[in-house]
Design a protein that fits this description.
The chain is an alpha+beta fold. It is built from 14 helices and 22 strands.
């Protein structure tokens, strides 16, 4: 991390704030199934007039299960005339053992051979698996949608993959529309694909939020063909609406006569006709999702594996009484929510596991004696048969979840906040990083699935998550109490931090940056320490399937639900003890 000039008043203000009390699978498995899309990454989108505070919000759950979880801040830079930018191939899925180097150093070994002109200035940004937010409050969240096999281009002619595309957007864009145009033009010019195929990105700024979808154009494409190397479309979410992308294409009919709401590559329809994905003589209007990424199923028909679409709309607009039998392709692009969503509402949605619905992953035998919703995160195979299991929004294989919050009426350094939660959402808390912080703790930059490391922030949350699984229905209450303190406390402090930073910014932007840097870093470090302590407390409290009370120095057996005990008795044919 780069060093900043210390500023006495910032330290004093932070001291007062903190003194007030505690913060009141394998790679092939992760690849998409054609026509159905994969099962990883959920994106929630909230327009500025659909949120309680005017924020534009998007979420990204990176739930690969084996991928890199580290974060970086890349500073902005000035570039001389004629300077070029090297393009690298960056797989979403590949990692290396820490002894061989970290991903964000090792990817430099995979130069594509392409160099493109640099703009005079590139912007600073936060990135993890993808670029998430730049210094202009342009934000991105990702969800893979999949596409037809004939469109996949895994050849070297596709010189830009999705991760690289998002980094370029971060470096070069001032608005969401800029980012969409830049990504579309670069992909068309240099070819899109290689590591990736059908993908969706939520692209936002403080004024609007869009769904951008992009597809490769097949393995025979080459730059010499004179044809575009990608096909894409984008649709704006109305300001008072919310939307979702649960690994399924969301854009339907496109009306390019309304540029405030639609953008697309010029050959979006003609290419679909050429590839026999759309028949103009059918009498049906052209639909992007029906042509490029059909997913004909529903929550009910899929046995819950494709229930996230229904669940989001059911949560956001219950008055509309959406049915789980509704084909996912028939859900609206977006909906006006019954009530405006707060940031906490959105955070809670990322943790949803179908509680109280027929798809509840913790109910009945599926959840064991302690209603654990995490036992069956994927379809199960018994004999030669595969059986579906509900796939919730909150999934236990998440690398991390990001929430991008961008806000009007504030300097970008203060208006943009990237919230990060490591690991499974139900056992982690979201930590805020203001754009003005322009820094990431070292503990966020390191870590690996296969090597325990107390210096890595992610492992603190995995420590708690693993221990919570043992007696989930009991332990999750301890975790939720910690979430309320650390996550809820950070949300409550936001207005105060905004006001303090704004006053400092008017005096000197550098002072505001120092303040936001110290706040973001110290808050994260305190939360991580709290989670290590929480893990230690869970070991003491629930060891030996007991409940130990360190204050009262008492111990009781962990209570089992009566319904579970009845089922055990029935299954094993246990007879009651005879009374003497």
């Amino acid at each position: 991390m780069k060093k900043r000039t210390s500023w006495r008043n910032s330290v004093l203000v932070l001291a007062l704030i903190f003194a007030a009390g505690s913060f009141s699978a394998a790679v092939d498995d992760a690849r998409p199934e054609r026509q159905w899309g994969p099962e990883g990454c959920t994106v929630i989108l909230v327009g500025k007039d659909a949120s309680t505070d005017g924020s534009v919000i998007s979420t990204h759950t990176a739930d690969c299960g084996i991928c890199d979880w580290t974060f970086r801040w890349v500073p902005g830079a000035e570039h001389a005339e004629g300077a070029t930018r090297k393009i690298y191939r960056i797989s979403q899925y590949r990692t290396w053992p820490p002894s061989q180097g970290l991903k964000w150093e090792r990817y430099l070994d995979d130069f594509s051979g392409l160099e493109i002109p640099q703009p005079p200035r590139t912007y600073g940004y936060y990135h993890g698996m993808f670029g998430y937010m730049n210094e202009n409050q342009v934000a991105i969240s990702e969800s893979t949608t999949g596409t037809h096999r004939q469109l996949i281009n895994s050849t070297p002619s596709a010189q830009i993959d999705l991760t690289m595309l998002t980094l370029l957007a971060m470096e070069r864009s001032k608005t969401a529309r800029d980012a969409i145009r830049i990504m579309g033009e670069l992909a068309e010019t240099y070819g899109y694909g290689f590591h990736d195929d059908g993908e969706m990105l939520a692209v936002s700024d403080p004024d609007e939020i869009w769904i951008f979808e992009i597809m490769p154009v097949g393995p025979l494409w080459s730059p010499e063909s004179g044809t575009p190397g990608a096909v894409w479309s984008a649709q704006r979410v109305p300001d008072d609406h919310v939307s979702v992308c649960p690994n399924e294409s969301r854009i339907g009919e496109i009306d390019l006569s309304k540029p405030d709401y639609f953008m697309a590559s010029k050959h979006v329809v003609s290419f679909a006709i050429e590839k026999k994905l759309y028949n103009p003589d059918s009498g049906k209007p052209f639909s992007w999702k029906h042509a490029y990424s059909p997913a004909d199923t529903s929550a009910t028909a899929s046995g819950g594996t494709r229930a996230r679409m229904w669940r989001f709309f059911d949560l956001a607009a219950p008055s509309k009484k959406f049915s789980p039998d509704t084909p996912n392709m028939d859900f609206p692009f977006s909906v006006k929510p019954d009530k405006k969503l707060s940031l906490q509402d959105v955070m809670n949605m990322t943790r949803d596991k179908y509680q109280g619905t027929p798809f509840d992953t913790g109910a009945g035998l599926r959840g064991g004696p302690f209603n654990n919703p995490n036992y069956h995160p994927r379809p199960v195979r018994v004999g030669d048969q595969t059986y579906p299991t509900p796939r919730p929004i909150g999934v236990n294989r998440a690398e991390y979840t990001t929430i991008t919050q961008v806000r009007r009426g504030l300097p970008h350094e203060i208006g943009g906040i990237l919230w990060i939660a490591f690991g499974a959402q139900d056992t982690a808390c979201y930590m805020p990083f203001y754009l003005g912080a322009a820094e990431i703790p070292h503990s966020f930059e390191i870590g690996d699935h296969w090597e325990f490391d107390r210096a890595s922030a992610r492992w603190a949350f995995d420590y708690v998550d693993t221990l919570a699984q043992v007696a989930y229905s009991h332990a999750i209450k301890d975790v939720q109490a910690a979430i309320e303190v650390w996550e809820g406390g950070a949300i409550e402090r936001t207005r105060m931090i905004d006001d303090l930073a704004l006053r400092l910014h008017k005096e000197d932007p550098a002072k505001a940056a120092d303040f936001l840097n110290m706040y973001s870093i110290r808050n994260a470090e305190s939360a991580i320490n709290a989670w290590w302590k929480l893990g230690d407390d869970l070991i003491v409290k629930y060891r030996g399937l007991s409940i130990y009370d360190p204050v009262k120095r008492t111990r009781i057996d962990l209570p089992y639900p009566e319904e579970w005990l009845k089922e055990v008795i029935r299954y094993h044919g246990i007879e009651p003890t005879k009374k003497k």
